[in-house]
Amino acid sequence: MKKLLLSLLSLLLVFAMVMTLSACGSKSNEPAEPTGNTEVKEPEEIKEPEAPKTLEDFAAADPSILGNFKAGNDSEYITASIKENTLIISYDFSKDTTNGLTEELVKTDLFRDSLKEGLANGSSTFEEVAKSIEDQYGVQGAAVLVEYTWKDYVIYSETYTAPGTDK
Predict the structure, then answer these.
(1) How far is residue 34 CA from its own chain's centroid?
(2) What is the phi-psi region of residue 164: left when phi exceeds 0, alpha when psi lies from -120 to 50, beta otherwise?
(3) Which domains are present in the chain?
(4) Average pLDDT by consecutive 10-residue portion of the chain (167 residues)?
(5) Is 0.70 surpassed by the pTM of this model?
(6) Where are the alpha helices (DSSP H) in the chain?
(7) Does the CA dihedral 67-124-20-10 come out positive or negative?
């Protein structure tokens, strides 16, 4: 359990570092050089392209975003995906052969309750990830869904939102 929590926390720390570093890009604010034409024209209404509205829109426009969430994750049992404004982190116990767990064990109430307790102890981390998504991409209502599965069976899941927002 401790290894699992450490793996998830490591993944999120890497995500936070990548997001921080990706915000350090340079932008040019220099005015354009004047051309030889000095004719004064009436200003035209400038229509800016429609900005992405959800995290999923951002990821569709820039596939490297999802890659940033997956950075540092070299396992096949932890996956990351995005749906609307939710980052989904899934841990599939059936694919993790190092843990020695069986399907019967992971489907017990005791196991589910231990996952619930572990997530409760790390809830502030996931809430901060949701907040950083809102801050970085300007989307409202960002969330992080953490789910533990055995193949298609969801053992336990919890959704976290930025501090101060409702779930």
Answers:
(1) 43
(2) left
(3) 2-15+52-161 (3.30.300)
(4) 41 40 40 57 68 85 79 77 94 91 95 95 94 91 96 96 79
(5) no
(6) 2-22, 55-61, 64-70, 103-106, 109-121, 123-137
(7) negative
